[in-house]
Write a structure and sequence with these properties.
It comes from Aquipseudomonas alcaligenes. It holds the Pfam family GATase. The chain is α/β, with parallel strands linked by helices and about 240 residues long. The chain contains eight helices and eleven strands. Strands 2-1-3-4-11-10-9-6-7 form a nine-stranded mixed beta sheet, sandwiched between helices. The longest helix has 15 residues, at about 75-90.
């Protein structure tokens, strides 16, 4: 059997990007298809009010990135927070990326806010602070494509810091074997990152834009993070996570 993953899509792509990239849910499906643990995905766009039925059960729930602020007051964000808290209290596994990373930190007792450092864009490198059993393949340093102007500034009390950099001190964390979150975007590809940079050039600022474009010459380890995430979900369910 393969893992069943519910992707809670928290954005709608810009019109000029939809034809090529469809949405963050589809980008995650393409990413996870490249790693060795079999999984089946269902995508629900929560901005549009889409959620799985109460009868559906999943091995994990993944919250994607978004142009919205995790600390925003939009009705759909409040609905999502209520839903995720229910899932957390039910013991379900939760995965968060960028907006999801920040929202889950907020929801579970941490803090997220606009970063004084400004926009984080391009390929960014993080030092690993922990080595968990599911972090296979192991790395000392992690490179990911990023696009964010908010950051987690305080972790929930029961969280463990996993990755850090001077620019982004809380870049990844876990809470036991139930919650795993990353500020970076494992699902991004370089062309999509460049398209976002071009769209946001003015608000990012010219120096940061130029540095970010130059950084795109580097590779990133989104596939590694994808494998970690599926190993994290599969832990304790090994019989249902046969390699493909």
């Amino acid at each position: 059997m393969s893992l069943r993953i519910c992707i809670l899509e928290t954005d709608v792509l810009r019109p000029e990007l939809i034809d090529q990239y469809q949405g963050y849910g589809r980008m995650f499906e393409r990413l996870f298809a490249q790693q060795p643990i079999a999984a089946h995905f269902e995508v629900f766009n929560v901005v549009k009010g889409e959620y799985p039925s109460d009868e559906e059960r999943y091995d994990a729930y993944l919250v994607t990135g978004s142009k919205a602020d995790s600390f925003g007051t939009d009705a759909w964000i409040q609905t999502l927070k209520t839903y995720l808290l229910k899932r957390y209290e039910n013991g379900d596994k939760l995965l968060g990326i960028c907006f999801g990373h920040q929202l889950l930190a907020l929801l579970l007792g941490g803090r997220a806010e606009r970063a004084a450092q400004g926009w984080g864009v391009g390929v960014h490198r993080y030092e690993m602070a922990e080595k968990a059993h599911w972090m296979s393949p192991a790395v000392e340093e992690l490179a990911l494509l990023i696009s964010h102007q908010d950051q987690v500034t305080a972790l929930p009390d029961n969280a463990t810091l996993l990755a850090s950099s001077p620019f982004c001190p809380i870049a990844a964390y876990c809470i036991g074997d139930q919650v795993l979150c990353f500020q970076g975007h494992p699902e991004f590809v370089h062309d999509y990152s460049r398209a976002l940079l071009d769209i946001r050039q003015q608000c990012i600022g010219e120096p940061a834009y130029r540095n970010a474009v130059a950084s795109l010459a580097e590779q990133h380890q989104g596939a590694t993070v994808a494998e970690w995430m599926m190993r994290f979900v599969a832990h304790g369910k090994a019989e249902d996570a046969s390699p493909v």
